[in-house]
């Protein structure tokens, strides 16, 4: 079975084509700057990068160009588009409606669109990708895999806010959590590396990138996570503030004479590391400049690490212990300094001991704690696309079995 995985953003489409008979990636790439000057596709086959620059006004045109590439004589890996059996779509928000991945039909698509009020920056883009895929690949099964679904196992003590309960009843205001596909993959892979069943482990997964979240995974299920009603809650991120006193919003709106909507834009796009440093949102820039001795970058780096450590401590308490702490995503996989500083500054009370020599790498799967560390410290590169493809394959196969 061949599965095309699509992660559709507001101005981009990230894609992978996988042969699920052996889980090999046949091709992958990124459609960038859709509807913006300078749009292009970066298409990779067997490690070879091909860049195609063209006017890409919308998602349908972008996806059509991707499909043309997949069957082209120069860069293709398929004889025909009919070889694509299914398309797996990353969907950011499924609310309480979707606790697992599902086959997409009109009712499901309508529901995803309705969820846009909970994720206005993400779900509309996801819907555009789904509609384009349904139009261009009418014979392929379409499957939705939701960032929020893994966290639907959280108990009420974790997901309810201490505000009038009627807001949950009327508007479903609660913690939903995000990055669920990544946290699920990493927790499962951690158990495999340790040679244990997920049901026997307490794992803290740290998805640390420009957007970042921490999850407590107890016995294979998410019991708490740092992102909440929206991806704004939790850690300090590239441009997002993370946790803050909500009274600050009214105070700044009044003092600056701005609207709550304008303030929310500031908290989402002008805060976090960008807000602290006034110039950097990328942790690579902040880390480099912190090493060079720039005080504001060092301060931002310290804030970033401290927030991560606080959540690790909270989730160790929430699970009454922890067996493994795992770093993943762009920063988590590629910043040995961050991993070392968090372990040495904050995690000693848990019995964590990091092996500095082993930790000196980027982008690999490794145990980075010493043999006598009471808690395993690990790096597991995330693979959301593979998780989406696996879910898609399973759902399609189950559907075929039901039809027999």
From TrEMBL:
Chemical reaction(s) catalysed: acetate + ATP = acetyl phosphate + ADP
Protein's cellular compartments: Cytoplasm
Keyword terms: ATP-binding, Cytoplasm, Kinase, Magnesium, Metal-binding, Nucleotide-binding, Transferase
Binding, ATP: 14, 207-211, 282-284, 330-334
InterPro entries: Ac/propionate_kinase, Aliphatic_acid_kin_short-chain, Aliphatic_acid_kinase_CS, ATPase_NBD
SUPFAM superfamilies to which the protein is assigned, alphabetical: Actin-like ATPase domain
UniProt-annotated binding residues for Mg(2+): 7, 384
PROSITE patterns assigned to the protein according to its UniProt record, in alphabetical order: ACETATE_KINASE_1, ACETATE_KINASE_2
Active-site residue numbers: 147
Protein family (similarity comment): Belongs to the acetokinase family.
The protein's name in its UniProt record: Acetate kinase
The species this protein was found in: Geotoga petraea
Name of the gene encoding the protein in the UniProt record: ackA
């Amino acid at each position: 079975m061949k599965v095309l995985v699509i992660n559709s953003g507001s101005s981009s489409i990230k894609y992978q084509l996988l042969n699920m008979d052996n889980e090999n990636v046949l091709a992958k790439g990124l459609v960038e700057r859709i509807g913006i000057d300078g749009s292009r596709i970066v298409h990779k086959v067997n490690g070879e990068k091909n860049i195609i620059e063209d006017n890409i006004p919308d998602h349908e045109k972008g996806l059509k160009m991707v499909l043309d590439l997949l069957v082209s004589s120069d860069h293709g890996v398929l004889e025909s588009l009919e070889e694509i059996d299914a398309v797996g779509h990353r969907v950011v928000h499924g609310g309480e409606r979707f606790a697992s991945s599902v086959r997409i039909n009109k009712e499901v698509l309508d529901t995803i669109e309705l969820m846009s009020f909970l994720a206005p920056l993400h779900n509309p883009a996801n819907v555009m990708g789904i509609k384009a895929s349904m139009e261009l690949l009418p014979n392929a099964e379409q499957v939705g895999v939701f960032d929020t679904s893994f966290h639907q196992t959280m108990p009420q003590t974790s997901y309810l806010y201490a505000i009038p309960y009627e807001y949950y009843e009327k508007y479903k205001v609660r913690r939903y959590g995000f990055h669920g596909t990544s946290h699920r993959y990493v927790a499962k892979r951690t158990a495999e590396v340790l040679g244990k069943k997920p049901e026997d482990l307490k794992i803290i997964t740290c998805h640390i990138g420009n957007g970042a979240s921490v999850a407590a995974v107890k016995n294979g299920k998410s019991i708490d996570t740092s992102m909440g009603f929206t991806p704004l809650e939790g850690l300090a991120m590239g441009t997002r503030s993370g946790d803050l006193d909500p009274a600050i919003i009214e105070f700044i709106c009044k003092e600056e004479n701005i609207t709550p909507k304008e303030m929310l834009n500031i908290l989402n796009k002008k805060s976090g590391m960008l807000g602290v440093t006034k110039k950097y949102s990328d942790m690579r820039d902040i880390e480099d400049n912190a090493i060079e001795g720039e005080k504001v970058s060092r301060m931002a780096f310290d804030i970033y690490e401290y927030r991560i450590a606080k959540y690790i401590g909270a989730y160790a308490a929430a699970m009454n212990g922890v067996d493994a702490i795992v770093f993943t995503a762009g920063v988590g996989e590629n910043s040995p300094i961050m991993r070392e500083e968090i372990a040495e500054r904050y995690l000693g009370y848990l019995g964590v001991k990091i092996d500095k020599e082993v930790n000196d790498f980027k982008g690999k799967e490794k145990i980075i704690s010493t043999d006598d560390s009471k808690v395993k410290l690990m790096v597991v590169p995330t693979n959301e696309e593979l998780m989406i493809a696996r879910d898609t394959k399973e759902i399609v196969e189950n559907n075929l079995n039901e039809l027999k």
